Amino acid sequence: xxxxxxxxxxxxxxxxxxxxxxxxxxxxxxxxxxxxxxxxxxxxxxxxxxxxxxxxxxxxxxxxxxxxxxxxxxxxxxxxxxxxxxxxxxxxxxxxxxxxxxxxxxxxxxxxxxxxxxxxxxxxxxxxxxxxxxxxxxxxxxxxxxxxxxxxxxxxxxxxxxxxxxxxxxxxxxxxxxxxxxxxxxxxxxxxxxxxxxxxxxxxxxxxxxxxxxxxxxxxxxxxxxxxxxxxxxxxxxxxxxxxxxxxxxxxxxxxxxxxxxxxxxxxxxxxxxxxxxxxxxxxxxxxxxxxxxxxxxxxxxxxxxxxxxxxxxxxxxxxxxxxxxxxxxxxxxxxxxxxxxxxxxxxxxxxxxxxxxxxxxxxxxxxxxxxxxxxxxxxxxxxxxxxxxxxxxxxxxxxxxxxxxxxxxxxxxxxxxxxxxxxxxxxxxxxxxxxxxxxxxxxxx
Length: 446
Description:
- The chain has one domain (3-432).
- By secondary structure, the protein is an all-alpha fold.
- The protein has helices at residues 3-17, 19-31, 37-56, 59-74, 77-100, 102-113, 117-130, 134-149, 153-177, 181-205, 210-214, 223-256, 259-295, 299-326, 328-335, 339-348, 351-358, 360-371, 376-400, 402-422, 424-432.
């Protein structure tokens, strides 16, 4: 793998993945043009509810991408089909459960966040519309993960960019032309989710024959492979659960500091999302190459993935920090015209500089480990990071208020990077040197 090959995959993934947080940014920016911070707060709380739901099962995209990439390296037909079939079944079941239990999920959210009356009203409007998109979102995760793992770069880009651009355009139309407010933002998102699911399914059908896939239905629940998938998915679910606990504690504490602080934190958090997804584009490239080299048992290739990943983890930190400094006023002004929210956000903006320079290894190495479907280190890194966050959260918020909250967030990000870096050699030893590594009848590591 050359630097050119890596960038050839990473940059399209950045372009496609960064449209997702930009969508959230546009949601916030559109609502930020209205005359009450409660609108921003309502979107923030509503978005966290769905982030909690979808991130918890984000393994449907991540693990699908890893297994799909490994099938690319192994070049076996049954792996080709089963890497899509197995997560597809999970997505259908989980998506339907979200619809069935939508009432209890909503009530639990109000118990956790305890938002002010107007914030709750707007968040409820947002939730009641978007909950119906849950099955389509999860099935969309599987579609996108499989396409990315197979290096279907153009298909992945078109799927993500077109659906998010549609969402943005509908946002603007529903809110500014039809004056639908928060309900308009939610309706725009639901329509875009339906579009993404339909287009993603069509792209899958261009690559997968349902008739051929049906031949392998008897292997879909094979014990050794299902155990491997369950192990990977449970590790990733624990990882996401830790992330969600941190996020929910962060949002809840911000809400406790008042609507103005909640709104300013929401703006900065949206910028953080964009930064994270830039790194995520490179993580996706690292994941695909790592999975491919693992499937082909190419240790030298995997070492090269680590080398190039290190280079971009640190280089991106410097570049993004410079952009944050240069465009601070423009970024905050993009999200809202409310001067009090901008002034409050400016007080905490510098925490983004620290975040940008500590998160790179944690994000990009996450891609390498998921591509290799060696997920225990990911789980462990998040458990340790959450423990550090909780300690810093209770001490920092008592001493420094909202600054203490952001300090805890940055320490969380730093810890996950440090722990994953420490697991680097363990990954190579486990995959290529351990004599007791078991394989099933088709040579797949378990």
